[in-house]
Design goal:
single chain, alpha/beta, Spore Coat Polysaccharide Biosynthesis Protein SpsA, Chain A, 7-stranded mixed sheet, 7 strands, about 40% helix, globular
Length: about 230
Amino acid sequence: MNTAVVIPALNEEGPLPLVLQDLTPLVVGGVLKRVIVVDNGSTDNTSQVAQAGGAQVVSQPKRGYGSACLAGFAHLALDPPDVVVILDADHSDYVEDLGLLLEPIRSGQADMVLGERTTLAERGALLPNQIFGNKLATALIRTHTGHKYTDMGPFRAIRWTSLMALEMEDPAFGWNVEMQMKAIQRGLRVREVAVRYRTRVGTSKISGTVKGTVTAGIGILRATWRYRA
């Protein structure tokens, strides 16, 4: 199963080498064919450390999590994989749990698998505003789709054909909401699997600041309304 990883990154020169180091055995072992780091307008050495870590670097100066993901997908579209994995650059996700996401897809049981962090997260890894945001977003999604998600975590895997069927477009914080709502609306087989989660390296641009938290919250509310139909 040809699998590629897309890592959106904004000023992550510190933790990114740790993520790429964890991914190296999977690349060497043939589990992963490509690792794409999308530099989302970094002002530090994110691109340089990504290249040094063996990743392919895609530049997307237009800020926004969704914009970064879309740029990574556009790059992959030149030679599409079977499965795409989205992974954060802050070393909060355990790359070793990647197999848990891929197995339901490999065995034909799912089209999209989400890493559910709430069960196995280390104490303090999920901040109070993240926990509240998760509960709010999943409740709103359930209201509009009838599907009960547990988490909005970024660590996820999806078949390339299924990803293309979602016609993703949100450029910012509504990205995960759009993906999870459209997946239900368009009949994808969705599963959540419990994955480990640790305290990120450095301060989050979203949950680590008041401005980031408020902006992300507004983005989530707008996205659940926009993609409700």
